[in-house]
Amino acid sequence: MATQIQRRISTHESVSVTLLLIVVALSYLVLFLGIPLFAVFVQALSKGWELYWKALQEPDAWSAIKLTLLTAAIAVPANLVFGVAAAWAIAKFEFKGKSLLITLIDLPFAVSPVVSGLVYVLLFGAQGWFGPWLQAHDIKLIFAVPGIVLATIFVTFPFIARELIPLMQAQGKEEEEAAVSLGASGWQTFWRVTLPNIKWGLLYGVILCNARAMGEFGAVSVVSGHIRGMTNTMPLHVEILYNEYNFVAAFAVASLLALLALVTLVVKSLVEWQAKRSGEPLHHGA
């Protein structure tokens, strides 16, 4: 009891120290997050709403918006399936190569996105290992939409798996074993036992994966070819507009990306709040 009281006293800070920490944290957020974000919207609307809407309705901008949404719509479900399968296998079963699988899942965190895009070019480009075969069969991956989707899947596939693995490990496998002992099949066990227990963590991982998919620049920049109206996503389109000194249009598209990020942040906060309200952790230790 005395030890617990001593720990509480030792971790208790004065009001002045607490206020100082809060001020430092808020100042940091305002300086490095709030001001740049505010500047994006100010620059986007500096010439008025008419030019702002015109920049977003321009054909190349609209093409970039659609390609960004399409890429995310393909990459996120693909990573959802992989993430759930990988997390279920790692958390619930013992098998050879388990450590290797965990290492491979973490690989995109260790490899630069630019390097990962370059790897796809070396594999599937015209002079790559599989380039001649792809050309002979009239299959175009690099400098086309499929290459963008593949690169995006690579850089985003750890997010869902890494969110679910510690959560499923913390939950253990007693409930699944009980369901199987009562005669439930593998799919019945997953849908009725495993999935309800991980739904908030799964949704949280999907949100993070979607945010990265829409904002990815490095890997997509290497494999896209920067073909206006065809292979430019929103981040790439912003870069092109800025390099052309078309600042209003560049900041207009950037503001749309920022709005998508803010919406993602709001949804993420709602998921965290709902998870805490229901008493279900988003991940181990939450």
Count every helix, treating DSSP H or I runs of 4 or more residues as helices.
14
Biggest sheet architecture: none
Ends: how far apart?
26 Å
Q: Mean pLDDT score, rounded?
A: 86
Into which percentage range does the β-strand content fall?
under 5%
Count of extended strands: 0
Helix content: over 70%
Secondary-structure-based class equals mainly alpha
Element string (H = helix, E = strand): HHHHHHHHHHHHHH
Silhouette: globular
Would you give an account of this structure?
The structure is a single chain. 31% of the residues are buried. The chain is built from 14 helices and no strands. The protein is mostly helical.
Topology, element by element:
Elements: H1 2-11, H2 15-44, H3 49-57, H4 59-92, H5 98-110, H6 113-124, H7 131-136, H8 145-156, H9 158-171, H10 174-181, H11 186-215, H12 218-224, H13 234-243, H14 247-278
Helix pairs in contact: 2-14, 3-14, 4-8, 4-9, 4-11, 6-8, 6-12, 8-11, 8-12, 9-11, 10-11, 11-14, 13-14
